[in-house]
Write a structure and sequence with these properties.
The complex is a heterodimer of chains A (about 625) and B (about 170).
Chain A lengths: L3 H5 L14 E9 L4 H9 L3 E9 L11 E7 L2 E6 L4 H12 L6 E5 L12 H16 L3 E4 L2 H7 L6 E9 L5 E13 L5 H11 L8 E10 L13 H19 L3 H8 L19 H12 L6 E3 L5 E15 L5 H5 L2 E7 L2 E5 L9 H13 L6 E3 L18 H26 L6 H10 L6 E5 L8 E2 L4 E2 L4 E14 L5 E11 L6 H20 L5 E2 L2 E2 L18 E6 L16 H4 L1 H13 L10 H6 L8
Parallel strand pairs in A: 4-5, 8-9, 13-14, 19-22
Antiparallel strand pairs in A: 1-9, 2-7, 3-4, 3-6, 7-8, 10-11, 11-18, 12-13, 12-15, 16-17, 18-19, 20-21
Helix pairs in contact in A: 3-4, 6-7, 7-16, 11-12, 12-13, 14-16
Chain B lengths: L1 E6 L2 E6 L6 H8 L18 E4 L2 E4 L12 E3 L12 H9 L8 H13 L8 H11 L11 H13 L9
Classes of the chains: A alpha+beta (about 625), B alpha+beta (about 170).
């Protein structure tokens, strides 16, 4: 059973836990209406109703280092080292698998060659395999997936189908939004419920609207399981709402950016879950940044280097992304991090992994700033479960913003404690000298562990799906110019500008790298990436045919960092890892529509997909 | 079979199957683990090395083909503890994230810079040429922008034909 509609119709019964046959999880969000009849009445009274159906394809993370893990046993204790995002996820899984205590198994992250969500939960699987094989063999066992095994077996982005209805009054204000989201979860539960949650929480978009209904379901099929991938459900629903908003702009003949600016959420507005937005809403700043560089749209018609006729177009989008865990997730998790006096300065200990996103550098900068010492005196300890507190998984755009803030707090307290110790014994001087003096004493380790504290006024109700879905949001706008070769139907991105409100760029090069990397993954998803299933198996499980953008496919990327500080992030920083993935696909679709005069509501917008629309092109 | 070749300026001999992949000879026999495997099918470029002055995917080269030839891996780019200009600029520009593609990109980009393949080009032409010349090296993290910046900056540092100000 490979079709979500067949699964929902109960063609076979793969799963039933009370949400409906084959429904892994369902969420409903309601705002501004008590019943479906009330919602229908708003639609009945609307000046315009825009309806659309949108489909997005599965996407492979394609970290360049495949999944890899090694295990060995010594004195009855299991040691596991490997490529992973979340050492304590693996630890938790091994405690269950091996029926052992926390100290009987140790998980160490090795240098990890990319993750993007693909090494969030899957490493527990391969860790289980090597742990059991190593116990049986009595020797160390290492397992490295071949690329085709990795693509065939590991979790990918959920394919998603979204039906979206938009009710608009005569003045062009949104009166109601009604959304139905269906994701294909595949054959196992994985992280599907949380992916769906983030998908539905972003589905109504960053727009003012008094009445909203969102229903989301993630469905069991016989496909390989889908799971975490940067954006985590939000890119799928963002694609749908930004296509809808574009259709509204076309209907009204209104400028695409001006319309978005007119409808966008600002401080004082409420989201679909009724969250009152306060600080760090960068809407106006993001629009101003995009407008400052937008310039004229590309010349419509031309000829490319191959002598083929081309048609060009421009698309924009506006979007947001909640940073950190959803709802009360961060409170439940209560992530901890430690800053300690070490042998050569200070140590930062957390389970947050550096998977290329720069966690080690950022933690070093945050701790150094809080302690008032040179970054050279900070050592970030490798995240091995026996040596670090559980700061939570390395996911959800939370490492810098959430864990960084905990480190910042721990470092400030440690500094006061160390200064007090110095004052007591009459020693003054730079903090590093005090640390050295302390380390030379035969006394207990001086370490400060801090625990996540929610910002004040954050309340979330899991039962009704209302309240503060996220402590804060990043805000972004994207502008894309495309050129379509009218002979081959290839769409090429001529220009891609992203303006992202990151709160504060603690390390601008790292933040740029995050935005640009996420942007290209999104452009790839829009135009050329796809995972093709045939009879429930991946039919393109090689890098030869499961393609991702190369240097030659990538446009020059323009990145505008917008800083509207978040009072509870370190130096005002907000999460940035995922947001760039959410918007560009819709901007591409909007641009291709602008060029050819025909709607593109499915991904990928491949040459074949464009060619299929040729009879409907409107090229005045 | 006994094979002899020059690796990073040193003569090395290994006793191995001629069918073994050069990638495995480098990583396992010679313990030069800087060269990475991303796909094993010549698509990702993480295993890029120079073979007699040509950039190749070492996962597609049989050890037997390397007898008597000259190989440069990422370990051979730095000289006397000084990084190659390309390596320095990858660091300075933020052109590396997770790092697994970086050795292959460094080898290929050093080849581009040292041979002056973008010398004398204006900035836009040079950027387009870099994108073409490095198209066999996939990076999933960076979006390539800061890597292109790094190669441009390295090329500015290095006069063509001088082996990279090594």
């Amino acid at each position: 059973m490979f079709d979500v509609d067949a699964a929902l119709a109960g063609a076979q019964r793969l799963f039933d836990a009370g949400h409906g046959v084959n429904v892994f999880k369902q969420f409903v969000i309601r705002k501004g209406h008590a019943s479906d009849a009330e919602l229908d009445a708003v639609f009945a009274g609307a000046a315009h109703v825009i309806e659309g159906s949108y489909a997005t394809s599965p996407q492979e993370q394609m970290y360049v280092e495949p999944q890899a893990m090694m295990a060995w046993w010594r004195d009855g204790r299991c040691h596991i080292v490997g490529s992973m995002q979340c050492p304590f996820y693996v630890h938790k899984a091994m405690k269950v698998l091996l029926a052992c205590g926390a100290d009987d198994v140790e998980i160490a992250q090795s240098v990890t060659g990319g993750g993007f969500g693909g090494k969030e939960e899957y490493p527990s699987m391969i860790a289980a395999h090597v742990a059991l094989l190593a116990r049986k063999a009595g020797r160390a066992v290492k397992m490295v997936y071949d690329r085709d095994e990795d693509i065939a077996a590991t979790t990918k982005r959920h394919p998603c189908w979204t039906r979206h209805r938009l009710a608009v009054d005569a003045r062009g204000e949104l009166c109601a939004i009604d959304i139905d989201v269906v994701m294909d979860g595949g054959a196992y539960l994985t992280l599907s419920p949380v992916v769906l949650s983030r998908g539905v929480l972003h589905a109504a978009g960053p727009y003012r609207c008094p009445v909203v209904r969102v229903r989301g379901r993630v469905v069991a099929t016989n496909h390989p399981p889908h799971g975490a991938f940067r954006g985590f459900g939000a890119p799928q629903t963002t694609f749908a709402y930004e296509r809808q908003i574009q259709k509204l702009a076309r209907l009204r003949g209104e400028d695409a950016l001006a319309l978005r600016k007119r409808l966008a959420l600002r401080a004082g507005d409420t989201t679909a879950t009724g969250q009152l937005l306060g600080a760090s809403v960068g809407t106006d700043e993001v629009f101003a940044a995009i407008e400052s560089v937008a310039g004229r749209p590309p010349v419509r018609d031309g000829v490319n280097a191959h002598g083929a006729p081309v048609r060009r177009g421009r698309g924009v989008c506006f979007y947001f992304h909640g940073a950190g865990f959803t709802g009360s997730g961060e409170q439940r998790l209560a992530g901890r991090a430690t800053v300690a006096v070490g042998r050569n300065g200070f140590e930062v200990r957390s389970s947050s992994t550096d998977i290329g996103q720069g966690a080690i550098t950022i933690f070093t900068q945050i701790a150094a700033a809080a302690l008032g010492v040179d970054p050279a005196h900070i050592a970030v300890v490798d995240p091995t479960t026996s040596r670090v507190p559980d700061s939570g998984p390395t996911v959800a755009s939370r490492t810098c913003m959430v864990v960084g803030a905990v480190i910042d707090r721990a470092a400030r307290v440690l500094r006061r404690r160390l200064e007090a110790w110095g004052a007591e014994r009459g020693t003054s001087g730079p903090l590093v000298e005090l640390a050295r003096a302390y380390a030379a004493e035969p006394c207990a380790e001086l370490a400060e562990t801090a625990t996540y504290e929610p910002p004040p006024g954050i309340a979330w109700d899991d039962a009704t799906y209302t309240g503060a879905a996220y402590p804060v949001y990043g805000w972004a706008a994207c502008l894309v110019d495309v050129e379509i070769d009218l002979d081959t139907c290839e769409a090429r991105v001529l220009r891609c500008v992203q303006a992202v409100d990151v709160g504060k760029a603690i390390n601008p090069a790292i933040v740029r790298g995050q935005i640009e990397g996420g942007t290209l993954q999104a452009l790839g998803w829009a135009l050329l990436e796809n995972v093709v299933y045939r009879d429930g198996k991946v039919a393109n499980a090689n890098m030869t045919n499961c393609i991702v953008p190369t240097f030659a496919d990538a446009p020059e990327l323009e990145t505008l960092l917008v800083e509207v500080p978040y009072p509870f992030g370190p130096s005002g920083a907000k999460g940035v890892g995922e947001i760039p993935m959410d918007g560009p696909a819709a901007a591409v679709a909007n641009a291709v529509e602008d060029a050819l005069g025909v709607a593109f509501d499915e991904l990928p917008i491949s040459p074949e997909a464009i060619a299929a629309t040729r009879p409907r092109w409107r090229l005045p | 079979m006994k094979l002899a070749f020059e690796v990073n300026g040193e003569r090395r001999t290994v006793e191995t199957s001629p069918w073994k992949r050069l990638l495995d000879v480098l990583r396992e026999d010679l313990r030069l683990t800087g060269t990475k495997e991303g796909c094993g099918e010549g698509e990702c470029g993480a295993c890029t090395v120079e073979l007699d002055g040509e950039v190749v995917n070492s996962c597609l080269v049989a050890a037997g083909q390397c007898d008597g030839r000259r190989i440069v891996t990422v370990e051979g780019l730095a000289r006397g503890g000084v990084l190659h200009a390309v390596q320095r600029q990858l660091v300075a520009c933020g052109g590396a994230q997770c790092g697994i593609c970086t050795p292959g990109i460094a080898v290929c980009a050093a080849h581009v810079v040292d041979r002056g393949l973008i010398a004398g080009c204006d900035d836009a032409t040079a950027r387009a040429k870099i994108r073409d010349l490095l198209a066999g090296n996939i990076c999933r993290c960076t979006g390539y922008q800061l890597i292109v910046d790094a190669v441009i900056a390295a090329a500015r540092e290095v006069a063509p034909g001088t082996e990279g100000a090594r």
